[in-house]
Design brief:
The protein contains four helices and seven strands. With 150 residues, the chain is of the alpha+beta class. The strands form two sheets. It has a four-stranded antiparallel sheet. The protein has two domains: 88 residues, PH-domain like (Roll); 46 residues.
C-alpha cells in the first residue's frame, strides 16, 4: 500500500459560531455607544463582557478538526481530552451531504461518511466546500478499491 498523504483538512465554518460572535459584536457596539454618550467609564466592562464570547468560539472551533487522506477520513474533537473517529476508505459504504437553506447560501454543509459495520460513521459538520469534499472522498474511495454505493 502506498504512503498515506493528506488530501484535505479543515475545521467547522465560522458560520457555525455566528451567535457568540454576533453577541460579542453587539457588546463592542454597546461599548462604543457608552463611550459616545459620555458613559465612558462603563465601556471597558462591555468590552470585557465581549471577550469570553469570542474566546469561546475560537476554542470550540480549534477543538474540532477534520482530515481526509489517501487512506482514511478522520474527525478529531477536544482540546484537553480527545476523541478521534475515523473510517478507512475501503470500508466506506455511504457518503451523505446535508445542507439546510442557510447553509447552502453560506456555502457550507455536513458530510457524513459511514460503514456497513455497526453503523460506524465520521461526521464532518458545517464545513466549507462540503460538496467538493464529498466528491473528493468518493474519488479516493473508488481509487482505494471501495464500493460504488452512494
Amino acid at each position: 500500500m502506498s504512503e498515506e498523504r493528506e488530501v484535505w483538512s479543515g475545521h467547522p465554518s465560522w458560520w457555525n459560531f455566528w451567535l457568540p460572535m454576533a453577541t460579542g459584536d453587539l457588546l463592542i457596539a454597546l461599548a462604543g455607544l457608552l463611550w459616545w454618550t459620555g458613559r465612558a467609564r462603563f465601556a471597558p466592562w462591555a468590552l470585557a463582557a465581549a471577550a469570553p464570547f469570542y474566546l469561546g468560539a475560537v476554542l470550540r472551533r480549534a477543538g474540532v478538526s477534520y482530515s481526509v487522506s489517501t487512506q482514511r477520513v478522520r474527525a478529531t474533537t477536544g482540546l484537553v481530552s480527545k476523541r478521534v473517529d475515523e473510517v478507512e476508505l475501503p470500508d466506506i459504504r455511504n457518503i451523505t451531504l446535508t445542507q439546510s437553506v442557510p447553509e447552502r447560501l453560506a456555502g457550507i454543509g455536513t458530510v457524513t461518511v459511514s460503514t456497513a459495520a455497526d453503523g460506524v460513521e465520521v461526521v464532518l459538520r458545517s464545513i466549507p466546500g462540503a460538496e467538493a469534499v464529498k466528491e473528493t472522498i468518493r474519488g479516493l474511495r473508488r481509487d482505494a478499491g471501495g464500493g460504488t454505493h452512494e
